[in-house]
What does this fold into?
Amino acid sequence: MPRPIPYSQALSATALAYGVLHHLGLLPDGLGGGPDGTRWADWLDLAVPWLVLAPAAATMAAARPGAGTWTLFGAGALAYASGHGIHLAANSVANAAPGETAHLWDEVVGHAVWYAGVALVLAALALTMRGRPRPGPVGHLLAVGVGLTWATNALGGGPLLPALVVALAASGWGWTRRRELGVVLLTGFLPGALLLAMIVSGVVAR
It folds into this structure.
């Protein structure tokens, strides 16, 4: 049997995958035109749920949490995959033929379901951090990437107020676990929460 991936490596891979793959929209011109009016970035986007949720599941397996945490993760993974699929399809259609319906399914429904899944997966992973030692500098750096990705994704089309609530909740939970690995949620999400708060309050323009 293959050796299981160590917890810290799986968690780091999850953070890196999320931080990188949730910015595919920044690829110049979607890497150009693909088959049947699509863009090549659309085809790359098909792999995102696999590349993000697989290391997240490996993290869960390494942590061996209880049934409740697995249920939370499963609900989040289903919402993540469903929301991402809605977003991908509608976004690809909107690139070829923009309209109100495509906008609704992409920017409103798709993003809401997708990011709700991210939040549930995050909560499940946070529960696996309890009692584990504080990370080194690389862990904090990856955490900042995750928190800022959450914020920039919300700015790019997600609902701002719910995104701010999640960022504040993650930061608060990280504060209560500041002597453990969970401090990464404080490190990662506090900057994003501050950015979202300034935009919601009108201090900074969106």
